[in-house]
Specification:
- This protein is mainly β.
- It is 10% helix and 41% strand.
- The protein is built from one helix and 14 strands; from the N terminus they run H-E-E-E-E-E-E-E-E-E-E-E-E-E-E.
- The longest helix has 29 residues.
- The protein is elongated.
Length: 286
Amino acid sequence: MNKKVTAILIGIILLAAAYAGFVLFQYQNSMSAGNDDQIENTSNADDKDNTSAEDGDFDTATSSEQENTTESDKNDGKNPQNTTSNNKKEEPAKPISLPYTIPGTTLVLSKIDSYDGIFLEDGSDKEVTGITTIILENKGSKGIEYADVTVNQKGKELKFKATDVPAGKTIVVQELNGTAYNKSDIYGCTAQVAELDEFEMSETMVEVKELENGSLEVKNLTDKKIPAVRVFYKFALEKGEIYVGGITYTAKVTDLEPSDVRVITPSHYIAGSSEIMMVRVYDTAE
């Protein structure tokens, strides 16, 4: 096992431990008598990731299916400190409490915290210390293809991108710029979201199997040449209940002849710790 895979596995283990701490905190909070369930951003433990990278016959960094198609960023509400027409100051904006349902979406911001380990969101796998991470839950009945999330932390905007989040699942996402964690109040959270009815697997055209060594076997089930196949995958914990990193990796196969079988070894795919999210076929090899 090479050093990069080992480092990623250690990062995933750390994320699992942090998430376990978060779940325990939720349970203890729900059992406490009389008090409202409210997860403050003062507890510590969490882990993260997000964006998208492409491996396969070659490696590049892309984002979920829409390669750099990050839609527009969005602004959180800034603290309105203006005066009204009668010269009375408006009340300062109050911090939000967690968990917080992001307006207009099915996403719930469950936690924000610090993380040390591997940075996943740009595919670089560099070591980071003390960066900001969030936990998001998709409470809806549809999958989320991508979500551009902005968190307003005392006037400072933090950016997160989560891709390919199935309905009812949880994802741990790192701040896109690796911004250091600041234990301060949150004054708003917004998101731009694209939903999917289902994650396409193209099972009538191709078959994808995981091999023991972490390679993937891709078979053309048709009697026609397929110019390109992309396999989208993520790091996953708890048998796909929790996804690690907003990033979705992509492995690409080109010029797959009828009934042809191709074995590829995606650079970020780890047997037992990765999950195939989508399989798409294309009319061109580009």
